Amino acid sequence: MLMLDCSSESGSFSNLFETGTGVNAPADASGQSPAHLAACGGEAFFLLWQLQTGANLNQQDCLGEAPIHKAAKAGSLECLALLVAGDAKIDLCNNSGQTAADLALDYGFLECAKFLRTIQHTQTMKLRGQSGYSLSDRHGLQREDPTAQKQESETSRSINRKRRRSDDLVS
Asked: Which portions of the chain have biased composition (kind: Basic and acidic residues) (predicted)?
């Protein structure tokens, strides 16, 4: 099997498949798949090809790093965007307890860290919004989202109007 490091030329990535490597098979002893190598090298086109052929976005190597960690360490915003669009777990921690955003920050890729933190914040807000309990009062107790309360109140008013009309017709 052909071994590649992250600084390999993009043309040599295709050699991985010429040797019969599966899309999620570790390409080397450290457990890095072709998707890891593409993300590590900032090879967005090859990574996209990997994603389209069913690569596991969350497969971790011996360091506990998934392709998203590799892209963050390489500072590849293109690869990070592809991984996020493919529903990679952005809160996945490596063996040292670091997320991809932590690594991007450690390696000095502030734009990548900001991108990942923004996506993570957006996902968190969506989850809170789905539960209907997204706001906390000053005591830390959760209370219902005011939009949900407003909708419920409007529904109650509509029902009460209908009852009044039917009561007027009966009397």
From this structure: 136-155
Nearest to 59 by CA among 19, 88, 96: 88
* Nearest one of 56, 1, 63 to 31, comparing CA atoms: 63
Yes or no: say if 42 and 79 are a contact pair by the CB < 8 Å rule: yes
CA 115/CA 88 separation, integer angstroms: 14
Q: Report the distance separating Cα 1 and Cα 118, nearest Å.
A: 39
CA pair distance 153, 133, nearest whole angstrom? 17
pLDDT digits (tens, 9 = 90+) for 116-152: 999 999 988 888 886 554 444 444 444 444 444 445 5
Q: Report the half-sphere exposure of 13 (CA within 13 A, side-chain side).
A: 25
Q: Flag whether the pTM goes above 0.70.
A: no
User: Burial, 52: exposed, middle or buried (Cβ in 10 Å; 0-12, 13-18, 19+)?
Assistant: exposed
d(CA 104, CA 42): 13
